[in-house]
Design a protein that fits this description.
With 274 residues, the protein is of the alpha/beta class. It has helices at 28-44, 65-70, 75-85, 125-129, 160-168, 185-199, 248-257, 260-263, and strands at 13-20, 49-51, 88-97, 100-108, 114-119, 141-144, 147-151, 173-177, 202-206, 209-211, 217-219, 222-225, 231-235, 240-247. The protein has eight helices and 14 strands. It starts with 12 loop residues before the first strand and ends in an 11-residue tail after the last helix.
Length: 274
């Protein structure tokens, strides 16, 4: 069910927005302009956090050009957009660190400050490995209006260990900038709801749509999913701004009612005598 944009968030709720778009591959200026428009739209609809797709600022399937674009000032203009609209942003972009390049989700606070970064830890095939270095921090979180938000990038969410680690770290929302392509639409259709349910957390799965002129065809299918697996908002194809109200108490109640996190037996857990 799509949140009514005409209403303010309920008491205790946090309104989150997610941008599904094809973007403009290789054109940082055009993508910043789209981000500016999306941030304005999100704020007008009552959202305090906006999440973009994977590598949104540059495009994903652009090969070695990502390294050149990463050495531009991407943080400054992105932070300026966050500050101009007074909204927190999770933005997918390439991050250069010496000779290494990372596929990164960066967090910009409503005052424009860069407050957190997550480097994709699970690289997908030659598309990623030919360009990027894997990150080595499985869990990165930040606080947003009482919600603890964990960051993953695309392929990361397909490993149950990553979302479980986020849930065990206390995350209420797992934000997943994504560049999911055909023929893997079942990930968007089925697996994301499963990840939310098995950890009793919200999941924001934020994908590209269309193609980038290469061999990839993105599946769209972005969604905001509740801890019980219910889809709060979804876009099949096309450019769309998804919006939903998230509540910390819904996560806490769900984890009490469905205590997977408490009942699990991690490796080497002692076996009770029976």
């Amino acid at each position: 069910m799509t949140t009514d944009a005409r209403q303010a968030p309920d008491d205790g709720a946090v309104r989150v927005a997610a941008l599904q778009t094809a973007g403009t591959p290789g054109d940082v200026h055009a993508n910043l302009a789209e981000l500016d428009r999306a941030a304005a739209d999100a704020v007008a609809r009552g959202a305090s956090l906006l999440i973009t797709p994977e590598m949104f600022l540059t495009g994903y399937e652009i090969g070695p050009a990502a390294a050149d674009l990463a050495r531009q000032d991407l943080d400054g203009p992105t932070g300026a957009i966050a500050a101009r609209h007074g909204i927190d942003l999770v933005v997918g972009l390439p991050e250069a660190d010496g000779d290494r390049l990372y596929n990164t989700a960066s967090v910009f606070a409503a005052d424009g400050a860069l407050t957190a970064r997550y480097r994709k830890t699970h690289l997908f095939g030659d598309l990623d490995r030919a360009v990027f270095t894997a990150g080595d921090e499985l869990v990165t979180t930040f606080e947003h209006r009482g919600l603890k938000v964990a960051l993953l990038v695309c392929y990361d969410v397909e490993f149950p260990e990553t979302v479980r680690a986020a849930a065990l770290a206390g995350a209420h929302l797992v934000a997943v900038p994504t560049a999911q392509m055909e023929p893997f639409s079942f990930v968007a259709d089925v697996l994301i709801r499963t990840r939310a349910w098995e950890n009793q957390v919200y999941v924001a799965y934020v994908n590209h749509d269309g193609d980038e002129g290469g061999e990839l065809r993105y599946v769209g299918g972005s969604s905001l999913v509740a801890p019980d697996g219910a889809v709060l908002d979804r876009a099949a194809h096309g450019t769309a701004l998804l919006v939903a109200d998230l509540r910390r108490d819904v996560v806490e109640a769900g984890q009490r009612a469905n205590p997977y996190l408490l009942d699990r037996r991690p490796p080497h857990a002692p076996v009770a005598a029976g």
